[in-house]
From TrEMBL:
It comes from Paenibacillus medicaginis. The lineage of its organism: Bacteria, Bacillati, Bacillota, Bacilli, Bacillales. It holds the Pfam family Glyco_hydro_2_C. Transmembrane segments: none annotated. GO terms for molecular function: hydrolase activity. Residues 163-260 form the Glycoside hydrolase family 2 immunoglobulin-like beta-sandwich domain. Keywords: Glycosidase, Hydrolase. This is Beta-glucuronidase. The keyword Lyase does not apply.
Amino acid sequence: MIRTFQQHRLRQCQLLDGLWDFVFDKDNMGLTEEWHTNFPSNPDRIPVPACWNNELGKYDYEGVAWYRTWVTLDDSSHLRLLFHAVMGHADVYWDGQHLGYHYGGFTPFDFTIPNVTAGVHELVVRTDSTLGHNTLPYHIVDWFHYGGIIRPVEIQCLSDVWIEGMRITYDMTGDSSADVRVLLKLRSMSDAPVEVPVSLYRNDEIFLNDNAYLPAKGSMELVVEQAWSDLQRWEPEDPALYMIRAVTGHDDRTDRIGFRTVETRNKKILLNGKELYLQGVNRHEEHPEWGFAFPNKLMNKELDIILQMGCNTVRGSHYPQSEYWLDLLDERGVLFWSEIPIWGAAFPASETDDPLFVERALTMMDEMIERDLHHPSILFWSVHNEIDTRSKQAYELSIKMTELVRSKDQSRLVAYATMHPMTDICLGLFDVIGINYYGGWYFGHVEFEEMLEVFHERCKEYGAEDTPVLMTEFGGAGVYGDSGWEPRLFSEDYQADILGKSLKLFRSDSKISGTYVWQFADTRAQLQSHLPHFRDRARSFNNKGLVNEYRKPKLAYRVVKGIYTGHNDPYDWGSTLK
Ligand code: ADA
């Protein structure tokens, strides 16, 4: 399942999960021209969705790979091919014809193919996971970037008129009332103009019955504006959700929304007018067995563990996470920080303004917002992480990114995470500032009062004295199972000690509105033998997880749980056997 609920009841949808033919194009020989003859007669087979780096013998491969499968149709139909996520560059071929290209990694893209005949069709995808100077992320990055078709490929049979998009926005006009606007984008594949009935439902109750007229092979937008009352707000402790369904003739689409407001005032974040204190963790959607192709079942368990720890928020470090995950957060009232993979610790300012990189960044941001606009759990759109925000290039990129976000969505806060809290020149551009600071780890000692003093002063200088501040990263590595009587570096004890002290300090600073521990689980690190970076990642993992890569708790998990839940009970060791 892509979502936790059914998005189409009338439109026929099928996931192309399974084993696909697969071949590495190690020398990038370009099977493009004559790939039919070049595709080996006895190719490897690999699961889709999956990351190839989790399969035997493919652990380290970065580069070009080809996938092939066959689709059988009983009847002729218009088709929509929907790729939920392919890493890096993707070229798609249908019966030997190039359908198009997409660059990205964590956001969906699609193609429509009119009048496909009944019978067997060939689908081929060329992927390229190579990172470089203008990719997202930049090629020097500490988290492992897997390759492959990481999320499902879906095939949808379209009727002559189909719903291409639905965008629901609202303004709260009172505690339980809102002005609601639904924009439906309809597209016709018919050779003649058509008229179709359109109905809209809220939780299966109809609120619009109309007709739409579409030109031959054209599209139209239908806008419906209504004042709604008796609404229940989406609150973390009671996350009320509303299903909105559109039906046009033979097509339909359901999405889900929640009503809430978010704003900032005097350094505080207010949800539905009430002040929030955020207690969170950073989460990579990654696992040693699945890479980024994270299974739904594990998302459920992960969220259970996170909630049991007393969290009310998660930061999706460092890329758009699965829609299924966001659905779970909506349903359980957990707030989310969503970002794109501009990961800058090693990204030189001089490369931040490369036009291709900027274009890719804006496109990915745009695609993320389009995909996730309706999730009430998302409070923050974050535009970059740890780039050189002391530089003019980072300042200019921040302006472009924040402008794009604000032009698309005003119902969320625009954020970023800085690693230069004392010298940053971008502080005044955002609704929320995140600080990544590893006192006790990279900076030797845990006392960061001085850093915070300088930072708060600097905020005044840059017109950000009222901007809320979150500690978006802090922590240290603790190798699972390494504990002792003394807090040695890399031991569970040392990690727990850093986190305990850091949290104490942040929670006593009234200018800080919340914390995201780095990080929830240990994650595979990107170590390149020819580069000097990240050599401190023991086991080729980032070991700063509160749980290890198999989600088993370390001492730090229990310490953070004690602080977040307010139960520092030594006998409450975090058992799930309640
Ligand atoms: C950075 C970065 C994280 C992680 C962390 C670390 O702050 O944003 O992705 O790499 O450092 O472990 O050093």
